[in-house]
């Protein structure tokens, strides 16, 4: 009985322990179910974070691809010789960034070449200005030489005029001597007459001859004075005509020279205006690219900030999850160890193998998730570092482009001022050329009018002289003298026609 009582007591104790263990097992199962539910919720949150991260990654790749396309557009605006790189998918982003790095280096070299080209154009412009000044100095020297030649020409014309005056004086003396010789010959012929009839006629006509001689002398003096006056006037007009011709030739030469200089200046002005338009277009394109890059830079900074915040939150969440999973694993391991010890002491080994695989599977799952999270975080960190480095390079290139654009904008007003100065100079040359042409036309018209007036005066005086000669010659031809003396007088034209004495 005592043994039965002990057995009953032991049985009661064991039954109570079994009840306690079953309760503990139910509690642990409830905790495991709670942890599994929590893990399912965390898995859902993790999948959501992965989706958001993938979306952010896609958005970032699209943004970077648009930035690269904008950079390519900037390169095309800078030069047409740059080869346009081809884009692949999002998987080849690293290769695309290396290609774009090479493209940006080419853009740098192209910008440097543009800057050197602008400097070369500036040096060429300075050389052209120096050549223009040299040509102006040479034109001034030629003008002074031309003025000296004109002075020499005027002195030579004065000498020619003096020689013409001397020649005229000699011609007048020759004419007077010829008239005297003619008179002497007429007197000699009259004196040689032996007939009494001729002596009577000469005695009767002595008074008439004296009157005719006086009239001839007066007419010859008058005609000589008129001829001298006309010759002097013709010489003056001829001198003035030569001066006007010289002026016309000088004006033509100056006009041709100014035309050539005007054409050259127009060509230079057109070249400078075309270069200035090209530089203005390049500056506008660079300004537009700079504004676009500024907007893209702001968007990239915002997106990088959001990406950095998401990465920080993701890392914090992973750290908190790892800590919680470590604590739970420690608690589960402690509980499993206590359960194993209690089950070894007890005689119910059938329930432990069901709980132990669950805990081991949970530990394995947590280890796999930790490894995958660590691997993903390392790859993401490497990509983020690569993108940050590329962004730094892009910002440096953008700053360089902004600096070059600022230099070009500083040089632009100088070129505009020089272009305005050249345009004003061209206009002044055009106005001076127009005035010179108008003056030449006026001088030509004045010269033509003067020549016509001189011709008209000479023609009228010739007509008047011819009328005077006909009136004087009629009384001589109508004399009632015998045939022999009249034939003797008519045989000498110098005694009858005083117009011949005034002829040169």
TrEMBL record:
Q: Where in the cell is it found?
A: Cytoplasm, Cytoskeleton
The protein's matches in InterPro entries, at most eight in alphabetical order, are given as: Khc_C (IPR059182)
Kindly list any coiled-coil regions of this protein. Answer: 1-35, 104-187, 384-457
**Listed Polar residues bias regions:** 332-358
Q: Which UniProt keywords apply?
A: ATP-binding, Coiled coil, Cytoplasm, Cytoskeleton, Microtubule, Motor protein, Nucleotide-binding
Region Disordered, as annotated, extends over 325-358, 468-504
Main subcellular location: cytoplasm
- Asked if Glycoprotein is a keyword of the record, the answer is no
Q: What is this protein called?
A: HOOK domain-containing protein
Q: Which organism is it from?
A: Echinostoma caproni
- Organism placement in taxonomy: Eukaryota, Metazoa, Spiralia, Lophotrochozoa, Platyhelminthes
